[in-house]
Amino acid sequence: MFEKIPTGVEGLDVMLKGGLIKGRTYLIKGGPGTGKTILSMHFLVEGAKRGENVVYITLEEPENEVRENMETLGFDLSNVTIVDLSPTSGHPIFSSLMGFESGIDVKTFENILQDIIGDNIDRVVIDSITMLKVATPTETEYRASLLRLMRTLKVKFNATTVLISELGNGVEDYLVNGMIELRTIEVKGRAVRGIKIVKMRGSDFDETIRPYRITNRGIEVYPDLSVFEV
């Protein structure tokens, strides 16, 4: 039996039949404003509550904005390590990534993580891998680089990893162990938010698109309803 860990969103854990399998890599996909970052932060805060070492790597939004946005939703980020690799951070990895000609510099990522938190990382979020994709010249090199990064996070750190990306088909869809999509669906002229588990290797899961809401406490998933019942 695989060990499962909760995501911090009760309704989603019901859909996942207990949570995510520990030590694997997952993808959260969605359009702008669907709550991808919020969902990933539930995952990290839940780990922090359990005494785990959790890391959020931002490649787009500055750390201060991430903290401000999440704190308005009541998230306690005091035990969440945020690594700011956004363009405005001034971190040298950004310029090196944008000029890198043979894929993602996985060794640089590994060194950054070790410098900040050592070898013990339980949960990590990378938001978003779209920036890594842009920084890699070809899809073949991106695939190889992403595989190296996933292997490093699993083998060296034994971390449960969540990658975030926009909607659309990508090579990462086939590389990850599980994929969750956040969508906005039109139902009888109304926009309804729907969450769907696309795949989850090694575990049974609810295949129905379920409604969810973004509230002042974060994301709430309703596993007993369909998107046509809200």
Describe this structure in words.
- It is a single chain.
- This protein is an alpha/beta fold and 230 residues long.
- The strands form 2 sheets. A 9-stranded mixed β-sheet has the order 5-4-6-7-3-8-9-10-11, with helices on both faces. A two-stranded antiparallel ribbon has the order 1-2.
- The model has no long low-confidence stretch (mean pLDDT 88).
- The longest helix has 18 residues, at 139-156.
- It is 33% helix and 27% strand.
- The chain has helices at 10-15, 36-49, 63-71, 92-99, 106-117, 129-134, 139-156, 172-175, and strands at 4-5, 20-21, 25-30, 54-58, 80-84, 123-127, 160-165, 178-187, 190-200, 210-215, 218-221.
Keywords:
single chain, 230 residues, alpha/beta, two-stranded antiparallel sheet, globular
Structure at a glance:
The chain has 230 residues and is α/β, with parallel strands linked by helices. It has 8 helices and 11 strands.
Question: In sequence order, what are the helices and strands, one letter per element?
Answer: EHEEHEHEHHEHHEHEEEE
Structural class, from helix and strand content?
A: alpha/beta
Strand order within the widest sheet? 5-4-6-7-3-8-9-10-11
- Indicate the percent of residues in helices: 25-40%
Low-confidence stretches: none
